[in-house]
Design a protein that fits this description.
0% strand, mainly alpha, 69% helix
């Protein structure tokens, strides 16, 4: 029973190409491993252009959706809180008294009974 050669990974990672090719020419196990690796590499190269295009489109769509979500949420919060809108537009917050309504000492609108 012969042991399988386990030098391929080490030679591929740490050695130069000439040494690797010399060993592959001599060793059947490493030659099979090298052929498998080349087949996988060819498949990856074949699929790579399609994967990049689809991925880039998905990233663009995700960025646009995120921007719309953040922008819409920010505008909705600003529209619901009038003090923020007043501060942004006019540089100050307006009270009911500033707008000409009659108010009591607590700032509540005064309503007259008839």
């Amino acid at each position: 029973m012969t042991e399988k050669c386990n030098k391929f990974e080490a030679l591929f990672t740490f050695s130069d190409e000439e040494t690797l090719m010399r060993h592959i020419a001599e060793c059947e196990d490493c030659r099979k491993e090298y052929e498998k690796m080349n087949k996988v590499s060819e498949l990856i190269q074949e699929v790579k252009p399609h994967y990049k295009k689809d991925r880039f489109k998905a990233v663009k769509v995700a960025c646009v959706m995120f921007a719309l979500l953040i922008g819409g949420t920010t505008l909705e919060i600003a529209n619901r809180n009038y003090n923020i809108v007043d501060t942004v537009k006019y540089g100050q917050q307006f009270t009911a008294e500033d707008l000409g309504f009659q108010t009591d000492e607590y700032g509540f609108l005064m309503v007259e009974d008839e």
